[in-house]
Amino acid sequence: MADAAVAQPAAKALSCPNCGGTVTLRAAGYSVTVACEYCASILDVSQPEVRLVTRYNEKASRLAIPLGTRGTLDGTEWEVVGWMARDDSGYPWEEFLLFNPYHGYRWLIEQRGGWSFGEQLTRTPEGSWGGLKVDGESYKPFFADGTARVTDVVGEFYWRVKRGDTVRTDDWVRPGAMLSREADGKEVNWSRSRWVPAATIAAAFGVAAGGKPWPPLPHQPSPALPFVKGGIVIAILAFLALLVGASITGGGRSLWNGSIAIAADGRDQQATVGPIELTRPYQRVRVSADVPALSNGWVDLDYTLVDRKNQASYTASKAAERYTGRDSDGDWSEGDQTAGADFAALPAGTYDLVIDYKGNNWVDPNKSSGNFWDPGAGEQTPDWRRDAVQPQVNISVRSRGGAGGGVFVLMLILIVLPLGAGFLIHARFEGARRGESDFASGGDDG
Length: 446
What we know:
seven-stranded antiparallel beta sheet, disordered C terminus
């Protein structure tokens, strides 16, 4: 014959000896005490005769989750059978005792709108005071030498509880979970609670979702941490993609090289060079100029690329300038003998490059150049156009692949900015959370 099914505890109705109210005992056979929900008197139900342990004249406050409410967490249906309020030196919280005949007891802990789902451990965590480990997860100390006091109680419990009961507490945390140690003169109990979003509790038990606790609760995970972790991965992948794209589209080729002469009298000049063949649908082109003889002067350079087929033109301007001198601080110099001008996106075709240019010389006003009667009497001002042997501008035209350095930097900024904002939000959250710890100045809990 098959074994008979194990009998499950049934609800049982009792009369409160103090107020006469009907008290429903939901975990009959398991509960030791029950608090009357009408007058909050504590009743001993461990014996057939219900005995009044403590009488309270005031009614229990209205609960966020009424006794008898059922809700499903982690696929298991739980019933709220007890509630008590506790306090540790002005640090209050509420605990709802949950019961399931197949899975036993669990706890819902509520504090400042934040919720945790707790269970009693049947083993002592491994490690020492400075760090504990359970199921391979490490916890670090957060609160120490606390005293938790029961300030109110309603419902039934599997141990004798009353207002004023106290236990010594210590807590260790990791993001998303907390280990708690409670000890009195008789025994030591360990429990583990994990953070549960308020929306999950609201969906399970039909209560208001509540606000976001601030400062954060000790084990509350940073809401920005998933974004930061994902952002780091995305940023790395995006950076690698940029590098690969730059390597594929980069490596421009030379299109034309040559030189044009600079007139010693500094007149306006024009030169046309080419042909310049552009083969890709669109490409970037840089025209570079180098004036080796340039000294204390500048060269204005205006470029026009003209498509031979349709006479479409594209312009850019640049100036090469170089100055040197000596003052009370010693020799000085500024500028560069080279200059580069970029054309962003030129269509394919055959082009001529028209260069309008002019060499200019800088005259130091502090040096004498003679007088009205004898202009040559003063110090002769150097002129790089006159003194150099065949002064010229060396022109180089190259196609350039990729998006260019400026665009590359902009793309990096767009990647890094959101990630940086996430880091700041995470740092602010963690700073506020750790600031609540008894070990706030002693280190980092990671």
